[in-house]
Amino acid sequence: MGIVYEGFDPFIERAVAIKTIQKSLIDQSEAPEVFSRFRREAQAAGRLSHPNIVSIYEYGEEGDVAFIAMELLIGMELKEYFDKAKRFHMDEVANIMFQLLGALEYSHGRGVVHRDIKPSNILITKDGKIKIADFGIAKIESSDLTQVGTVLGTPAYMSPEQFMGLDVDRRSDIYSAGVLLYQLLTGDRPFTGSNMTIIMHKVIHQAPVPPSKLRNLDVSKFIDEVVKKALAKRPEDRFQTAAEFMEALKLAIASSFPSTSTPDSEVTIKLTPQNSQHGGNNQDAAIAFNLSDFEERLEESQREAKYVIHQSVLSKQPQENELTVTVAVPAATHANPPKEPSEKPAESGLLARLALEAKKNTDAKQTLDHEKQATARRVHDALDRILKFFTPFIKHVNNMEPTINRTYRLDARTVFANLRWQGATVDYRKQSLADTAHLAYVAFSVNLRASGPVLIKRPWDQFDAMKSELHHLRLRVLDDLEEIYKKPKQEWLQARLDPALTVQITFQGNYENGKIDVVTRNLENFGTAAFRLESEAITPVLMDEIGLFIIGRTNKLPELLRRI
User: Fold this and answer.
1) Which pTM does this prediction carry?
2) CB atoms within 10 A of CB 18
3) Radius of gyration of the chain (CA)
């Protein structure tokens, strides 16, 4: 229905993809639905900031064209791999699924259900990172764009409730992710047919053939159990969250490891998800998947193997865990075992001293690692508390849209006053980049709007300085300054400013010292400021004081916010 262009943003200096549709080329009877989906794609994906979701930068309509500026990606659709009959190894399956489920957990936590998870909407970049695209039929919890009874989706990947026109939630995406897992394991979709009616009948009434029964011999009965639960007909019988799905899949992969190997060998597999969890409503979710009989069968089939599963204690987020499965296989029984030497050889004094020094060094490193992990946990806990305050805070205040009586002045003439609160948002990112390096923040943003355009007046010779100042403060000029400047020189240069200004607060995790760095823009007045807080200082009382200042109920920032 349109064209995607490769473009370049000269201001930020980045390549972008520009997705466009042209109104005049669309059947007028379909135009309202097409445009509502196009806007919904920008609205749904635009509120999400996750490394495994295509980033949306801007939406706009100009003349006959509507456009979305988005992240430009170099790679292939997962569909292209399937079309080429690509066979995926288990580590590749795990890598793709962990990233997909992490992105879905994040999206669901922000009230967005994709509803069209399928291979052509999963992009794989050259470095193996997946990106979920095309939120054109996404369901947004706060929106009424889609009514119950509307059938939307791609038949082979649609959940039973989608076919029946029922209301859908995150568990519909979990079903579609289960179809993708089935296809990654076997090369085939669980339900196929020559038309939609046949597929719908199978999806609603038939059980798929277990993946282990098909041609992929690497699939165990433990993974069959995970697939079966993901593809359950009733939403309440499936995994209830993407995080729960991921944890069950990790355990199934661990339990599937062969119980025999080379004598006296130890094999270690590391499955490190590329993605990470960025908040969501299920940050401390427990696994609801019942593994009682699962574990009994595991014990029976793996009597000769010992499994040790180490999970990083840095974060409770399942997406950040590195799953390490160590299989220690006992040595085979020899017909003629070697005899024990009759005398124990003399030990080297140097080797004994070196061993002692090495042990002390290892103990010191372990102590340091534990301290770093404890510091990281304190930082993440503080950011969680900040997020849990701001999420309901903006919801309530957006409904109120209060007037903020704080006055912002550029000079004696240029004054923003009687400001109206408009459209606050909060973003949250928590990502492990390495053992000791992390990126984590909670970012709050709100637009404050004056009742009308604000006048700015400067001496004629300060034209360049004024442009630079307005750019730094991110204030938009409604008039064409260049055209004004081309007119005959006068004593004063006068223009109208957009009445809107943006207030931002970013709480950034500081992992070097276990503190929270706070950066503000236009919080008290125009300009930026930096503060630092102890992790333990993030209390409900402090957050209440910050919230009261933001909505103008007090003119004094909390004393704990110390400038740096």
Assistant:
1) 0.47
2) 20
3) 29
